[in-house]
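task queued by scheduler; priority normal; single chain, no ligands, no partner chains; default sampling; output format set to structure tokens
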Amino acid sequence: CRFEPSQLSDPVIRRADGSWLYLLPSVVDDIDMGITHIVRGEDHVSNSAVQLQMFEGLGSPPPALAHLALLTGADAALSKRLGSEGVAEWQAAGIEPMAIASLLARLGTALPVEAMESLEALAQGFALADFGRAPARFDPEQLAGLNARIVHALPLAEASRRRPGLDPALWEAVHGNLSRFSEVDDWQQIIAGPIAPALDDAARAVAADAALVLADLPWTEQVWPALIEAMKARGHAGKALFKPLREALTGRQSGPEMAALLPLIGREAALARLAG
């Protein structure tokens, strides 16, 4: 971009009350901190033209400047003025930093958006030349999907760092079903109990029958498939079998594989939950 300086009006850099607008202080900060590259929205192109003159006037080489098309939401461009969500809200909601970085590094390019494990890996395929001029649409569902994939791929060592004392077997059982890392605490509570499943009469009857069957089965890592086979032999099958058992044992209608969860719940707790 090129701006003819004579076409630019003198910028207001200080208000009547003595407070400073951002134009000059940000240039001073950039010089003081040794900023070498600035990436900002295209709505700041004219401000950049003014600030380049400020860098020159202060005797400092300017940083390299790049301007990207604005991100849009469902109805308009995202902005603080419109109350759009920002990083603080995403952090509070349990969104992983790498989910945000992975999305923003590809949003507005023709490249596929991928869940990256580190900034170093992300930087290897990053180029400003890949970004188009048209505004890109931010989709919260896309961010949520990226977040889930990043949580699914978290190694046990990182999960244990975040939750000291985390049972490796619990992490192995549930991490593939988490949307946010904090949900591991929910499953820890489900395993430890108590839970309060809401079963109708038909589901309660299936669960009670399963309690009778389970009481006679050996408690091994294969106890869940053994329970299912025994229940099928008694005439139970399909959703009418699996749904009541999952709800009775976890209080949830969906979740990780029960074959991994049932051994974690334990024999006595499982029998008590099935018997109601």
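post-processing summary
- The longest helix spans residues 201-215.
- The chain has 14 helices and four strands.
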